[in-house]
Amino acid sequence: MNTGGRLIAGSHNRNEFVLINADENARIRSLQELSGQTCQICGDDIELSVNGELFVACNECAFPVCRPCYEYERREGNQACPQCKTRYKRIKGSPRVQGDDEEDDDDDLDLDHDGMMDPELVAEAALSSRLNTGRGGSPGSQIPLLTYGDEDDDMYSDRHALILPPSTGYGNRVHPAPFTDSSYAPSQARSMVPQKDIAEYGYGSVAWKDRMEVWKKRQAEKLHVIKHDVNDDEELDDPDMPMMDEGRQPLSRKLPIRSSRINPYRMLILCRLAILCLFFHYRILHPVNDAYGLWLTSVVCEIWFAVSWILDQFPKWYPIQRETYLDRLSLRYEKEGQPSGLAPVDVFVSTVDPLKEPPLITANTVLSILAVDYPVDKVACYVSDDGAAMLTFEALSDTAEFARKWVPFCKKFSIEPRAPEWYFCQKMDYLKNKVHPSFVRERRAMKRDYEEFKVKINALVATAQKVPEEGWTMQDGTPWPGNNVRDHPGMIQVFLGHSGVRDTDGNELPRLVYVSREKRPGFDHHKKAGAMNSLIRVSAVLSNAPYLLNVDCDHYINNSKAIREAMCFMMDPQSGKKVCYVQFPQRFDGIDRHDRYSNRNVVFFDINMKGLDGIQGPIYVGTGCVFRRQALYGFDAPKKKKPPGKTCNCWPRWCCLCCGLRKKGKTKAKDNKTNLKDTTSTQIHAVENIQEGAIVAVSNVGKRSEANQMKLEKKFGQSPVFVASAVMQEGGVPRNASPACLLREAIQVISCGYEDKTEWGKEIGWIYGSVTEDILTGFKMHCHGWRSVYCMPKRPAFKGSAPINLSDRLHQVLRWALGSVEIFLSRHCPIWYGYGGGLKWLERFSYINSVVYPWTSLPLIVYCSLPAVCLLTGKFIVPEISNYAGILFMLMFLSIAVTGILEMQWGGVGIDDWWRNEQFWVIGGASSHLFALFQGLLKVLAGVDTNFTVTSKAADDGAFSELYIFKWTTLLIPPTTLLIINIIGVIVGVSDAISNGYDSWGPLFGRLFFALWVIVHLYPFLKGMLGKQDRMPTIIVVWSILLASILTLLWVRVNPFVAKGGPVLEICGLGCGN
């Protein structure tokens, strides 16, 4: 943008500049208004040159980079443009670096040398460069004055400034070096309006001098930050070190998988795809005529498996890892002597039944949140009690009291983890790295206090086992409002965070709020998704943090810096604006060493999620996730301004005529489609005119029209306070609203009828329509153009508990699969939903795979039954194998094995975890996925809701005793049947081969290998059925009797002592007939 020769001056840090014109009054504009571009590395504005042109670091792609970042990249980085990787050329005024000798450009710096330089001199020079932007001139040259062409004796030298002439002849020099060239002649003074006093322009006044002193102080602080890693006896030998070096850098970076690992992996995928095509070519062209039904069934199943493999494999094409810089986050947002600039975070904890979800576990989760390493005034914890249980309320009250002791203890000694149950039971040297002399004494006292706290909670649980006939009553004799779980009012209690409640050291504590939404008969409350949406609205009214963290009640914070890890992505000025959520992997405690039923799910979290992170981000898994509130409100992701397209001036006119009509038609259709989308879309982008933190009344929300206000209320509901908070991108609550008023609004937004005729659960918040609301919610965000991030810190951020016995594990998988079936049969199915939005194709493949996998149970069960059928009938699914077919089969199995090995290498997964995952894929597919498929079809198509109950049959004491608990459930029938028929098939096949001789062993090998493949995959299921080795459940005895009966009947049919041609009758030689 051309400034018309007017002076651009002011404070860069304050983002305030003054344009001085001889014929106009002074105008204050931000630099971004003038240039329109910001640095893509540090987020600062890019300054203008003398003639109004932007500073351009790269002449190839013009990637926006400011002068300090350009010089830092040349000196400390790889000396190349971040976008096009072209080596930066030296711009006039910049110091030389290694490699510049090859260039023909001469150095214009008289003082460019390798000597030592005082950092204070660097700060003074940088200050001069900021004030004299675009000026050339020696320090001793004459400086023109801001007078009407004459020097005023009353003005001092420290009040002098520079008037830029319209043309200086200094080229595109925008960021002058601290040391200028003395060869340039001084500029001539330019006239100003003589009637105005110079103080009106901000120069020569006391305020101007004070601002300059503050500016110098800030530069000195920045230089001090740069030297924080340097020892006191060392000196900085770099005279051109930019200000705030560390704080200006990105807060995270991508770590691509090494090419030596990922390139062979990609090549093998393509080879496996080619082998797969040759395999199906052979299978289809070589049918088995005497077993056509078996052959056709096997081919159909194999084609389905191939499609499923493609949907699962190709989203792993771009796996990446990420690294965060917590020190840079502190340097940027936590300056010494200033309030913390970190964004507030609201933490959601959800629980339902305290008898199934022990209050002690929930209390540990809450304590780990309250003790997190984050500014206390920036954290608010909301606990949703969807069961309205007085037990949860009382346990949370005791937890708040114990937190007054626990939180200062954690922060004083920096202990990890900060959940007391897991801290005191961990088997490690708790004195490691502890140097405080009172640590042992205070730890013993704290452990004693925690044991007393546990006794209190256990006493509450014991009391709650028997509910009084008249219901529970509170301490003041008032009946507990939640005595009727299905019919009770909304309840909110602020335990911590209000005035007067502090910890034992007198410090402030994070806010802790108990929430139980209203429930009435006749309303659909939408289970967990509805509870989470209620927490969104309550938190928006009371604290309205721009970021949200949700965890399950049994997932405690294992890494106290977990929120800081997420903020490295969310608050990154370069890439954070498009991040909708940061997902952490799930890690679990209390799982046996062998992980028999793949509870850790390591393959999914360490391989699949890394692959998705390289595309558009991981899927949301329901817990351990930090959200951007604006993304949950259904707003579209910010879009980058596209550069202007190429014109067709270089093409012949006849080409423009023939292509113009078609292009014009496409543009018109696109505009109509955009207008229609904007009209019918629920995304009401109206945040530009809303001042952050301002009070917005119902009648003038940001001075919008009444129609827009009605749209906002139709979208968000009839709460004026919530509607006002919903359009505040940076969060905040109304300043003049009293706590009583806010609590009344909070009660309103959790009423059971608040969501009626709104877009909650459809476009806003957690999406309804599936028991796995997490997949739907993340899918909708990605469709709006947002991207997510997968964060894997070295110390796991969160840890939880997982069901480790077979029956509970199968029911957990059943719930997940049922949710996928519901999504598949809904309008939000990724196969046909979300086209034209921001969802990338490989990301769509992943979402399709996440809703299609339960259907794989049908071909899987059929395919696992084929070996037994082949062994019992003597047929096989393939004809006589030729050499070509043998090579194909060997290549197929070899490619599967090598692909798994390479995935284990770049994913960091052990072979045990990979093999357990393969085994449980068969076990879950043959049981939970099948039942989920039929249950989902009955629920969606027929409206019949069926549930499978679990009955505990045995229990044990000792380590991992839950692993050996046997609970009979109908989910165990299909895999048990597959296991038995394949064992029977092996017995029959081997018996038949023994009776028929040596020639029958060759054809038996393929069938036998097929059956053993099924049995080996079902081996963990068999161990789960048997329980401990020293006991045999009754159900196993019943199955054994049934199995023996079947084997007896089959033995009569096979009978190896009878020849195939029938019994050979010989005359005994006795005259029996006489």
UniProtKB/TrEMBL annotation:
Ranges annotated as spanning the membrane: 853-872, 884-902, 922-942, 963-984, 1004-1022, 1034-1054
Binding site for UDP-alpha-D-glucose: 350, 356-357, 386, 527
Recorded GO CC terms: plasma membrane
GO molecular function: cellulose synthase (UDP-forming) activity; cellulose synthase activity; zinc ion binding
Main location as per UniProt: membrane
Biochemical pathway: Glycan metabolism; plant cellulose biosynthesis
Coiled-coil ranges (or none): none
Domain annotation RING-type: ranges: 39-85
Membrane topology value: Multi-pass membrane protein
Enzyme class per UniProt: transferase
Catalytic residues (UniProt): 386, 774
Subcellular location(s) of the protein: Cell membrane
Keyword ATP-binding: no
Catalytic activity: [(1->4)-beta-D-glucosyl](n) + UDP-alpha-D-glucose = [(1->4)-beta-D-glucosyl](n+1) + UDP + H(+)
UniProt name for this protein: Cellulose synthase
GO biological process, one term: cellulose biosynthetic process
Binding site for Mn(2+): 528, 552
Family: Belongs to the glycosyltransferase 2 family. Plant cellulose synthase subfamily.
Entry-linked Pfam families: Cellulose_synt, zf-UDP
InterPro entries: Cellulose_synth, CES_Znf_RING, Nucleotide-diphossugar_trans, Znf_RING, Znf_RING/FYVE/PHD
Keyword ATP-binding among UniProt keywords: no
UniProt entry keywords in alphabetical sequence: Acetylation, Cell membrane, Cell wall biogenesis/degradation, Cellulose biosynthesis, Glycosyltransferase, Manganese, Membrane, Metal-binding, Transferase, Transmembrane, Transmembrane helix, Zinc, Zinc-finger
Organism this protein belongs to: Brassica napus
Cofactor binding: number and manner: Binds 2 Zn(2+) ions per subunit.
Record-linked CDD domains: mRING-HC-C4C4_CesA (cd16617)
